[in-house]
Structure to design on (62 residues):
């Protein structure tokens, strides 16, 4: 299900202890800039590919 930006923020904040949320947030931004590009994600390089439904939905080859 799709989330708004606010809902995603609240969801991610609940997944991490408060002291880890800031670094996790920055690392997710970095992941989006370097690996998980909106138009052409580099799924084989992604450290989260085992958790992500995108490769299976898009027939990405690992």
């Amino acid at each position: 299900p799709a989330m708004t930006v606010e809902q995603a923020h609240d969801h991610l904040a609940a997944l991490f202890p408060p002291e880890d949320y800031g670094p996790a947030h920055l690392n997710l931004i970095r992941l989006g800039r370097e690996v998980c590009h909106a138009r052409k994600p580099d799924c084989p390089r992604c450290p989260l590919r085992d958790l992500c439904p995108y490769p299976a939905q898009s027939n990405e080859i690992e």
In short: Residues 5-58 form one domain. The radius of gyration is 13 Å. The CA atoms of residues 38 and 52 lie 14 Å apart. The chain has three helices and no strands.
